[in-house]
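May I ask for a protein sequence together with how it folds?
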Amino acid sequence: MISLLALPQDILFEICSRLGPKNILALRQTCRGLHAFTSDDYFWHNFNVDLPLDLPDVDIISLPGSVIHKSVVNALRLEHNWRKRGSKIRRLISILQTGEIVLQTRLLERKWIIVLSRAPDQTLHLSVWRLPLTSADNPRQEAILEVAGGVTFTVGLQDGGKNAIIASVFSGVNSNSENRCHGVYIYNLSLEEDETGILSDSKPLKFVGMIPTPEEGAAYFDVHISGHILVSSLATFPRLASGPSISYKLLVVNTQTNFKALIDPQLPEPFNSHIEFKVRLYPEFVILLGWKACQLYVCLRKLPSEAFSSTVRPVSTLSNLDFQKLDQWGATLMEYDIPAFDNMFDVYLSNESSSRHATFMTAVFFYSVSLSMNMRGKFLRFKFDASHLKENNHQKRMAVEGPCHGYALPYNSSQDIVCMGRTGNKAIWFERKWDTDDYQIRLMKASIPANGEPPIVEMLLPKHVALPFELHTVQCLYFDEATGRVCFGLHTGDVYIMEF
């Protein structure tokens, strides 16, 4: 009988690659030889872990295997705590800044939180806070900037975490061609620190430029960043009710070279443009989701090669109306058509992954209000791997990964402020019940297994847990599944961060 250690290392790695991370941690405890094999940097650089890992925003090849191993152990502990009925709160951080309504928050690694808020005089502020690493410290505001517009924003780390690009969208139809305040606003955040841990730049948050809407009746309505690439969806509305339907374009920007272009997404006919149109950006491709007649349509398109050109343009080109027109852009890599899919759902997609090893996207579908006893939410997983993401792949039409699982929605309830984890393994949302004398609101959680098993849906916080705020005062949520942190932004201006 041949022992495992007698096998060639490539075959042994192939065997190990078919085991989950929990089994690998058990295997490495069986003998010194397997412990040494599974401690090698090469092993952890190539072992695919379908868990959200709390790792620095750098190429995984540059990290020691011990760092990745420790992150896997912490991810499994978090997964165990998350699956418990009533997850345990390990820590609560509060940022008290009464007076402004918190519109959106974003956690950036373990150190930072970015807050978009609106003051009573309607001015908007973008602020950056340093989070305490120990319970003895307090949050500290590092930067604040009054912004001309911003209804939603996103942020992407650059240069190994030394800088970040923040992009905000001031949405709304531009009805005045002479006043182009509606657009995508880009800011640079310097996070480089000196030896004492203080930010090197005294004014770390700076305005870079604003990309205007190209024409009257157009509006940007979302924004996404992956690496140096920024993508925003642009909707052009008909001037007359009897005119053509809403048309869409994609704005593609390279924030390093200042390249910008408007691209026709080439949506199939008949595409229902009056129902939700969603976009997600990954390092090398973009995902489009919408409805084609009565079918749910999902398409993966390769980003245009021009976006990765090294030719640097002046920053001033961002603010002019000279958009490069690309008639042909990246090839269609994969397509999904799901027939007989109700288009009355609100759609929530897992956030973009910065990893080139991303293998799937999770979508959650909820009705705006469940008005019958048999209405069900749905969980779907769309799979893509390296073999499918090649232009010469002949299997463009793909099946959904695993079954479409349903979740029974309580009668006369609504689900809102839905936050998906980056990997699509977890989600949180508010569930509001309207059929009782006393208005009820619950914070829910879902664990969505990668093996196709039904999702586990429970309350995140038990009813008896005392909180320093009322759930109905929450204006926005942000969920970082890699660290198990949930951020609550209140209409009072306060921000609370729970670690699970």
